[in-house]
Amino acid sequence: MANDDTSGKDLTGVTPSGTAHGEAPAGTAVVARDAFENPGFPPHRPRVTDIDPKAERRAERWVYTLFYLSIVGSIFAIVAYMVFPIDAENIASVRRNNLFIGLGLALALLAIGIGAVHWGKALMSDHEGIDERHPVPGTPETRARAVEIFEQANTESGFGRRALIRNSLIGALIAFPLPAVVLFRGLGPQDVDPVTELSHTMWKKGTRLAIDPTGNPIKAADVTLGSAFHVIPEGLQDLEHGLLEAKAKAVVLLMRLKPEDLNELPERKGWSYDGIVAYSKICTHVGCPVALYEQQTHHLLCPCHQSQFDVANHCEVIFGPAARPLPQLPITVDAEGYLVAQSDFHEPVGPSFWERH
Amino acid sequence: MPENRTPTPPKARSRKPRKTGRRHPLASVALIAIGLLFTGGAYAAFSTSTASAATDATSQQTIDEGRKLFIANCATCHGMQAQGADAGPSLIGVGAASVDFQVGTGRMPMAAQGPQALQKPVQFSDEDVAALAAYIGSLAPGPAIPEAHEIDGEGDASAGAELFRINCAMCHNVAGAGGALTEGKFAPSLAETSSKHIYEAMVTGPQNMPVFNNLNITPEGKRDIITYLKYLQTHPSPGGYELGNFGPVSEGLFLWIFGIGSIVALTVWITAKSN
């Protein structure tokens, strides 16, 4: 360290240059003597390993013991891999496998690290040194030479002169990422307007409400006071493709309150049936499923960001970051007593998107 | 029974000399045997009759016992006829299952009004809980205490896991570790809950838990859910220490303290001067 190319010098014994209080200018009556003095570096203190050869040997033993331990750890990891294989039938074998391989690898790597640091701290030279920074700009000759190289390259390649080649290359580079844009668009819904897709769900007039996951339709009489049903549209299970997308938009939570507890908006008077209400389960904040229903307070809590909706008051937001109430699904009963939807949701479910704020 | 053995022989002996004096050498032995049989049989009949009285939840005697317990311990809040009052709801029609859950887990009688009734050491003996349940169950039809075959935990654990994920996991955590609700309420951990109390909570909807009646989750589905929860209770996590199964909260705290702590300790050690 003390002999590298930047003439870093050994600092031990360097005297601090105290220049804070020089000669007082003429005419000054009082000279301040208490200006701050640069204390410089503390004096170099030799380590135990510098003085005591026994300590030095001990440190050396420590270092090579640690390196040998690392070898032991590596071999242990290999042996553990063979002795504790993962058995697909026994899930506890995963734990043993991970634990012992991990212990071996941790020992192998930690022992190398600790050994190297101990070597550096206890045995290598510990004299403080100082390296001056390089000046940031190069010498004028170096810079002139660099400009010269660029100009020569330009002349020889004709980059500046052959404009057609240059412009077509720039064009090619711009065009290259375009396939990625098209490919990513291919991941989205095809042949349909995404805004329409986001605005409509599987629910339509007459669709029966069914229990998730069995798909059995629900009778109004099944929904006793205080119940919460996790609902999917009937026929969802029969979808050939797009089942998860359809489910993610259409899931509904069905609850029965005492009719006198329910405070309905005038325009939604006919949307519930005898105290049974159905609300979208998709949070209007970022789309987590809101299903933590408290049957006494009639509050719905979103577990992701603690938005709270008051089911008794048309699911208005009473706490948290959600911007809109949960959309309500208008329901009624059919001739056989099963709960059915009157229509789709009257607004898009879930979080905001560009065309909806 | 041993205490019955001593009085019988003197009785037999004292009677015999008064008669003709003739007696068969085995007569006293036969009498002792008859006496033993009689007392033993009477004792057995008596003990079975008390046992059936204890288990018969609908007998009038049990209901009367439950009514006395109710008036002494519960009527202050729930009213003399369990009709409800300002401090407590009506219990008419809540069913025996509700009482068995609330009293059997120590939630009732409540220690103090709060966001929700907390679980605490059970305040009544099993017989008293059964008597209270019988009394409330006799007031009006309601969910009954489940039969043994409904809660035996021998169902389909993976079907139960799916039902649990859809219906329960949002509050109780997918591993049944419990979770926070609003304004100080919380869904409790299910790690120690008995099969019977899990079933009763589903059918009665204690406090802010919604009701999951048999038309929503079938008795078979409830049995599967119990099977899943029992599987979780008895099988260790393959990932090692669970740290309460709370996910990012406890795991993050562990890393924050021990992970960052050990990095800081190593950094201090690396930069400290060697002595």
Automatic annotation (TrEMBL), chain A:
Signal peptide boundaries: none
GO molecular function: 2 iron, 2 sulfur cluster binding; metal ion binding; monooxygenase activity; oxidoreductase activity, acting on paired donors, with incorporation or reduction of molecular oxygen
Pfam families according to UniProt: QcrA_N (PF19297), Rieske (PF00355)
Highest rank taxon of the organism: Bacteria
Topology of the protein relative to the lipid bilayer: Multi-pass membrane protein
Membrane spanning stretches: 62-84, 99-119
Ranges of residues in domain Rieske: 249-340
GO annotations of cellular component type: plasma membrane
Location of region: Disordered: 1-25
Keyword Iron: yes
Places the protein is found: Cell membrane
Keyword Mitochondrion tagged: no
SUPFAM superfamilies in UniProt: ISP domain
InterPro entries reported in the protein's UniProt record: QcrA_N, Rieske_2Fe-2S, Rieske_2Fe-2S_sf, Rieske_Fe-S_prot
Entry keyword set: 2Fe-2S, Cell membrane, Disulfide bond, Electron transport, Iron, Iron-sulfur, Membrane, Metal-binding, Oxidoreductase, Respiratory chain, Transmembrane, Transmembrane helix, Transport
Family: Belongs to the Rieske iron-sulfur protein family.
Function according to Swiss-Prot or TrEMBL: Iron-sulfur subunit of the cytochrome bc1 complex, an essential component of the respiratory electron transport chain required for ATP synthesis. The bc1 complex catalyzes the oxidation of menaquinol and the reduction of cytochrome c in the respiratory chain. The bc1 complex operates through a Q-cycle mechanism that couples electron transfer to generation of the proton gradient that drives ATP synthesis.
Protein name: Cytochrome bc1 complex Rieske iron-sulfur subunit
Organism: Cryobacterium tepidiphilum
Native organism taxonomy: Bacteria, Bacillati, Actinomycetota, Actinomycetes, Micrococcales
From TrEMBL, chain B:
Binding residue positions for heme c 1: C74, C77, H78
UniProt region (Disordered), positions on chain: 1-24
Residues passing through the membrane, by range: 253-272
Subcellular localization(s) per the UniProt record: Cell membrane
Uppermost EC category: translocase
Composition skew (Basic residues), residue ranges: 12-24
Keywords: Cell membrane, Electron transport, Heme, Iron, Lyase, Membrane, Metal-binding, Repeat, Respiratory chain, Translocase, Transmembrane, Transmembrane helix, Transport
Name of the protein in question: Cytochrome bc1 complex cytochrome c subunit
Source species: Cryobacterium tepidiphilum
Source species taxonomy: Bacteria, Bacillati, Actinomycetota, Actinomycetes, Micrococcales
